[in-house]
Task: inverse folding
């Protein structure tokens, strides 16, 4: 069976979206030219499980242009765009995903994509790796290795590596400098606000915005909130990050205190139960909560469901819950990644860098998998540097080079 998507008649709209991002992804366009000639993935089966949005579609096409046999699935039940999926199918790729899939459908789609007996996997949060180590172990002999896109996925891989459970090498794309410095910080910083603003259509200026987690994503979200004129409050569990937030000009307090004064809450920790029943009960009437971290457990919608006396959709992607105290609490996009479940995710120019890292890392894996061991490895420094160089070139920016004398000076200790 080839491709399981919602509606092939949406293909033209999807193709238009893919073409728009292609025009704005110069690094991938450069790799497209190169891969057309070199065909590095000839005869290689690649499975891509990343938010099935236009930029991911272009990455998948790039693997196919490079000679790969590609199957594509999503990485979140709410982030697949059905028109993009149709556009990819119309262009000859095999796709297994649709928007708003049930838990069972989502898993079935991942399994169908894995049915290709992949050699290389592109994972985003660890769903493919998880299946390959549990219910689809029979596919392990075909796997050379893979690449992981996000922070939580890398943490899980490291936990597997530590326990000796990992059965093939994985490259931690998230841990490349050209990933987290740009994608996690500036990408999340912009796309989370895009998701929130288009969903709520409310003003940010003057609001008390609570950002839970001051990691790479949290820093970006808080920085942009400041730009919008919000009063930004940060919650943290790490004293160094908390001190950094204070020096960046933000208030820091416990969630139990922030809950009482926040207007808008954004969790981005990768942790669970960051906002729970005790917090909801103390929130202001009309408070809005959303999540930008992995999975839908940071804002405990489960606990909110349990204490609510009434539930009513307020607007597309906004569910209101009435509590016993008469106050309403609003949840955006079911507590799933608000930038992808209620938006188009990071902008094209950002995913251009992340996906150039993915494409080059996959090529590296293909060439080196038998030397890497069952380990989580960093993106090679040359690839990280090459992506930064390509990005500067796309902007037409030139930088200085060290002279021989300067190199000598920097490496000496006597002068
Ligand atoms: P990070 O490790 O840099 O930051 C996470 C921060 O959260 C850390 O500073 C940590 O101390 C803090 N934290 C952990 N538990 C907490 C708690 N209970 N309360 C308050 N703070 C807590 O990670 P990151 O790169 O910023 O990623 C954060 C999450 O977002 C991950 O799950 C990652 O997979 C996801 N992510 C999402 C997007 C997106 O597009 N929405 C993009 C990149 C990463
Ligand atoms: N399965 C997990 C996925 C984590 S999402 C979940 O649904 O919770 C976090 C990743 O999404 C980030 O690392 C980022 O690189 C990626 N992302 C952000 N915008 C994107 C876009 N427009 N297209 C594809 N991936 C995107």
Result:
């Amino acid at each position: 069976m080839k491709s399981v998507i919602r509606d092939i008649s949406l293909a033209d709209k999807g193709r238009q979206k893919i073409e728009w991002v292609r025009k704005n992804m110069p690094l991938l366009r450069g790799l497209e030219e190169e891969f057309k000639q070199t065909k590095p993935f000839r005869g290689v089966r690649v499975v891509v499980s990343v938010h099935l949005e236009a930029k991911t579609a272009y990455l998948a096409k790039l693997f196919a242009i490079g000679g790969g046999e590609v199957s594509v699935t999503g990485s979140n039940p709410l982030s697949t765009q059905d028109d993009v999926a149709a556009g990819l199918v119309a262009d000859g790729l095999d796709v297994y995903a649709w928007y708003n899939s049930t838990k069972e459908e989502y898993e079935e789609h991942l399994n169908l994509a894995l049915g290709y007996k992949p050699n290389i996997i592109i994972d985003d949060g660890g769903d493919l790796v998880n299946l390959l180590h549990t219910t689809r172990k029979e596919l392990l002999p075909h796997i050379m290795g893979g690449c992981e896109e996000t922070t939580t996925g890398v943490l899980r891989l490291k936990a597997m590596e530590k326990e000796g459970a990992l059965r093939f090498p994985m490259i931690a794309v998230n841990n490349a400098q050209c990933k987290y410095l740009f994608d996690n910080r500036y990408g999340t910083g912009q796309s989370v606000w895009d998701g929130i603003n288009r969903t709520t259509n409310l003003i940010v200026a003057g609001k008390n915005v609570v950002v839970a987690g001051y990691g790479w994503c949290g820093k970006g979200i808080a920085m942009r909130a400041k730009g919008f004129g919000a009063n930004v409050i940060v919650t943290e569990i790490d004293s160094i990050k908390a001190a950094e937030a204070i020096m960046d000009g933000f208030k820091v307090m416990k969630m139990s205190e922030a809950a009482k004064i926040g207007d808008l809450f954004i969790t981005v920790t990768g942790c669970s139960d960051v906002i729970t029943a005790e917090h909801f009960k103390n929130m202001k009437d009309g408070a809005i909560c959303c999540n930008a971290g992995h999975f839908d457990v940071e804002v405990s919608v489960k606990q909110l469901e349990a204490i609510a006396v009434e539930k009513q959709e307020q607007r597309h992607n906004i569910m209101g819950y009435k509590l016993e105290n008469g106050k309403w609490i609003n949840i955006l996009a079911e507590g799933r990644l608000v930038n992808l479940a209620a938006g188009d995710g990071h902008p094209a120019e950002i995913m251009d860098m992340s996906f150039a890292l993915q494409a080059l890392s996959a090529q590296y894996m293909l060439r080196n998998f038998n030397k890497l061991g069952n380990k989580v490895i960093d993106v090679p420094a040359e690839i990280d540097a090459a992506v930064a160089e390509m990005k500067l070139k796309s902007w037409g920016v030139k930088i200085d080079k060290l002279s021989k004398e300067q190199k000598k000076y920097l490496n000496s200790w006597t002068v």
